[in-house]
Specification:
The chain has 620 residues and is of the alpha+beta class. The chain has three domains: 124 residues, no CATH class; 401 residues, Metallo-dependent phosphatases (Purple Acid Phosphatase, chain A, domain 2); 50 residues, no CATH class. It contains 14 helices and 24 strands. The strands form five sheets. A seven-stranded mixed beta sheet has the order 3-2-1-11-12-13-14, with helices on one face. Strand 5, helix 9 and strand 6 form a beta-alpha-beta unit. Helix 5 runs parallel beside helix 6 and helix 13 crosses helix 14. The chain starts with 12 loop residues before the first helix and ends in a 16-residue tail after the last helix. This is Calcineurin-like phosphoesterase domain-containing protein. One of its GO terms (molecular function) is hydrolase activity. It comes from Cylindrotheca closterium. InterPro entries: Calcineurin-like_PHP, Metallo-depent_PP-like, STPP_CPPED1.
């Protein structure tokens, strides 16, 4: 039956807007400046801050400057320092941080790294001369995840995660510029020294020792009341699913939460966070499809409680001012690579991202870029706010201002995009889609009809966009011909449920299975202390059906044991390597017994999998 129009989903405003790039009227005043529109008091405030600290040319009105222009690093630095000194100089709150994305160092291909170092040196030298509050932060994934002709004794050894890898990375990071300290956090490849180390613990110890780290995380006070905080991935061999999930262990999460409690915004603390992958709820929309479908897109992606914990901390602690991440190997030219924080509800849509700006970071070496861009992030600021810039390694280290953020008070700030979106037709990435008016949006909940027809007997096509919330509060959606699961709070994509091959040309319906489960709710004051049997929410058990309209075959989309729907089927790398070795032994056996060639033998080999279907590291 057709689902009643009255049941069309009106998603809460906070959810509807979490994954979207916020409207120009809220966070991006640059278009009004460029087109001669009215300048708001917030954009004027941001320009005043920018002119004070970072004017590109002396005595020039920055409000009329084309901010998208790339400026030579040396010229900009000279202008910035001299202009600032004339207007009162830097103070103890001034700072500058260089942020490097996934390095993936290959010892055979060091040219781009040397050029990148040359790009950064004058930037750091000028900042050292101006105020001395500097730091370099690496977001992890230090080595190339393949053999790099680095070990003659083991020509198959992966370079990433080895002692040699970390020694080369430490030398590179530690000699970026004289007097500039560096910090590093672990990514999903930094414990990949699987031939050298038997355990994650052994690999992690070498990682920390080589980089002079007492813990996987770090905390550095870079300026007055300003902290740089990093959280690192500590699991590879022991990952419950894909080894390329970025997993921050519970001890770090507890440490981080305590740090936030002891450094509140009310005491003027400003905290900048660094992790390899972004947290669920960051709102970043330019990501890689393979990270989504394989369950390694967000921090602690496969652990539902931990995955959402990070954005909950951001919402609670407004001392967190910005959060930088890498992982996707995508550039910084897209406005969707930066998201701005919560604003007062009366001023526009209200995505609850606390007081935090989230920024994605690109890569330095061309061979590691998924969209051809070679860029790093530059963070610079003081007590009044901060700016996020791009250092373009394909243009001799030229600096482009990407976003200006000014503090209204300890808990609120205003962000402005400083250039238009620069996506190109050849770019290949998965752009997170927001629910939009005109999409099919439904609630298939406890108070609705027993049959919820999502596509109304129409077959799914590549253009179908449908979203629905089940009685269990799980959110499923059709996009790009695939069935995906989305986080029920942030609407961030969690993973693949059905592929295009399994879904296209078929219809989707949600039906009741006839059972209601009692979900015990939190007690209210009146019921506190009573037995919970009579104080529960009735959750209807439902079945998601995919109907082949030609054959009338109906496929039931069964949830996982934890109630989620996305396919948690990509095992960690160690498990898959063992399976492949067993397959190779079987191939060799049948070749010898049946006289088959290699191609014939591979076709004749099958495995029993339980819930798994292949040794592939990709759910597609």
């Amino acid at each position: 039956m057709k689902f009643p129009r009255s049941k069309i989903l009106q998603l809460p405003l906070a959810i509807m807007t979490t994954m979207m790039m916020m409207p120009t009227t809220v966070v991006s005043f640059a278009p009004s400046l460029q087109r001669g529109g009215k300048v708001s008091r917030h954009s004027t405030q941001a320009i005043r801050f920018s002119t004070l600290l970072f004017d590109k040319k002396q005595n020039k009105d920055t409000s009329t400057t084309d901010r998208s222009e790339l400026v030579d690093a040396n010229q900009w630095l000279e202008a910035a320092v001299s202009s600032t000194l004339k207007t009162g100089g830097f103070d103890e709150s001034s700072f500058l941080v260089g942020i490097l994305g996934d390095l993936h160092i290959d010892p055979r291909k060091m040219e781009d790294y040397e050029e990148g170092k040359n790009d950064w040196k004058p930037i750091f030298e000028a900042a050292q001369q101006a105020h001395g509050n500097t730091c370099l932060v690496s977001l992890g994934d230090l080595g190339e995840s393949k053999n790099c002709d680095h070990n003659e004794a083991n020509p198959a050894e992966l370079f990433a995660g080895t002692t040699l890898c970390h020694e080369m990375a430490a030398d590179f990071l530690g000699n970026m510029a004289e007097g500039v300290p560096y910090e590093v956090i672990g990514g999903n490849h930094d414990l990949e020294g699987i031939d050298e180390f038997d355990t994650d613990k052994e690999n992690l110890e070498v990682f920390m020792k080589t980089h002079g780290k007492p813990t996987p995380h770090f905390c550095r006070q870079v300026a007055d009341k300003t902290l740089l905080v990093g959280l690192g991935s500590t699991v590879f061999r022991d990952a419950p699913f894909t080894s390329h999930e970025v997993i921050v262990d519970q001890a770090q999460i507890d440490w981080f939460e305590n740090l936030l409690k002891t450094h509140p915004a009310d005491d003027d603390w400003k905290i900048f966070v660094f992790t390899h992958a972004p947290p669920n709820g960051s709102g970043l929309r330019i990501i890689q499809e393979n990270h989504v479908v394989n369950g390694c897109c967000w921090l602690n992606h496969s652990n539902e409680g931990q995955c959402r914990k990070f954005i909950e901390l951001v919402r609670e602690h407004r001392s967190i001012k910005a959060w930088f991440s890498g992982h996707f190997h995508l550039g910084q030219d897209y406005q969707d690579s930066i998201t701005f924080p919560t604003i007062p509800m009366e001023e526009g849509p209200y995505p609850n991202r606390g007081s935090c700006v989230f920024a994605q970071t690109s890569v330095m070496r061309k061979g590691t870029a998924r969209d051809g861009r070679q860029q790093s992030r530059l963070l610079r600021g003081n007590k009044d706010g901060f700016e996020i810039c791009t250092v373009d390694h394909q243009a001799g280290g030229k600096i482009r201002l990407d976003a200006t953020i000014t503090y209204r008070d300890n808990s609120h700030e205003v962000g402005i995009y400083m250039h238009d979106d620069k996506a190109y037709e050849h770019d290949n990435y998965f752009k997170v889609y927001q629910p939009t008016e005109g999409d099919l949006q439904f609630v298939c909940g406890a108070d609705t009809d027993e049959v919820c027809s999502i596509t109304d007997d129409d077959p799914v096509t590549m253009e179908t966009k449908a979203w629905w919330r089940l009685s269990s509060n799980r959110v499923l959606g059709v996009l790009n011909g695939m069935l995906l699961e989305y986080d029920q709070s942030t609407l961030a994509p969690l993973g693949l449920v059905l592929t295009k091959e399994e879904l296209l040309g078929k219809s989707i319906t949600v039906v009741d299975s006839g059972i209601e489960e009692c979900i015990v709710d939190d007690f209210d004051d009146e019921n506190e202390g009573m037995e919970g049997a009579e104080h529960c929410i009735k959750e209807r058990e439902q079945a998601v059906l995919v109907h082949d309209l030609e054959t009338n075959i109906v496929t039931i989309v069964q949830p996982n044991e934890d109630g989620s729907y996305w396919r948690k089927i990509v095992r960690n790398k160690i498990a898959r390597m063992k399976e492949k070795r067993r397959e190779q032994a079987a191939i060799q056996y049948i070749q010898e017994r049946a006289g088959m060639d290699d191609k014939e033998a591979k076709k004749s080999i099958q495995s029993t999998w339980g819930p798994y279907t292949s040794t592939s590291g990709n759910a597609l």
